[in-house]
Amino acid sequence: MKIALEITPNLEPLFGTRDENLKLMEDSLGVRIDLRSDAVHVQGSEEAVRRVERIFADFESLRRAGVHPYNGDLLAMLKVVVADPKITLKSLADSSRQRSTGIKRSVQARSANQQRYLEAIEQNDMVFGIGPAGTGKTYLAVAMAVAAMNAKKASRIILVRPAVEAGERLGFLPGSLQEKVDPYLRPLYDALYDLCEPERVDKMLEKNIIEVAPLAFMRGRTLNDAFIIMDEAQNTTSEQMKMFLTRLGNNSKAVITGDITQIDLPNPKRSGLVEAINLLEGVEGIAFCHFEDVDIVRHTLVQRIIRAYEQKNLQQELPLDMGDSVDANHSPATGVHGAVATTLSSRRHSQPQ
User: Fold this and answer.
1) Does residue 163 surpass a pLDDT of 60?
2) Rounded to whole angstroms, how far apart are CA atoms 101 and 94?
């Protein structure tokens, strides 16, 4: 199928820098897009061509409504749209506008998994965000918390994080309890100051509308009408995780974020997050969102670093003793090739689909 789309005024931002947005549509949807002086020619399967046509129509509709996303944001939105046929550019912009009520900057999903994460937080009272560093787990959770409070869906935000050092022993920290815990919660503070005016954040902290609660002192509390975020949950013990999960009160939401590849506990096998994933998967009202390296929104080097470490872990999982009598070419089930295939298969099944 081949169609010609009219070039309307101010359509050029949709093309992207060096036509990178058009290339994304071509690669992801399997179409060919040719820019002509009079029109944009799109050729491919009927379904793919119709999706491109819808993107152009939605962009024109948003432009007329006064919505002009920056190129970086537009590229991120297009990545989500081409990855999921159920999502349109217009619906993505509308949901972003609703979530950003009262927030200093627009909060926009930059991958399909991030979009599913935001939708899960809206639809469930407890959500686990699990994945590598830089995938937006904490930032998006804080953004949703601020939006919920501004929309009167929650009266306070509670930030929790286990006080476990990343491979270092900082020793005794002077000051009040708040001052002792602050260094561990700095990523949450950074997100708050990025999303809200600093004066407003300071005022909410002063009035305890935003509360910093050390995990060790959560026992016995019932948290009503609150949006609760626990960051770095991989560093909780089994007992701490159970204690935290049972604090949820009426009209409250909880978001638990963590990266099971960066456990700093003396015994990583006792991570409360790992146990919760195994025990609570499938429980009604609880959603699990898994992120991958393609969801990383930091510097592109971070993606390569994560992949390098994953490759190293994959190699370490291979059995050291393959046996002297194994013929790798004829015994794939037990030989070297079989071991690699088995390891890859187990990792593939453990990854989110």
Assistant:
1) yes
2) 11
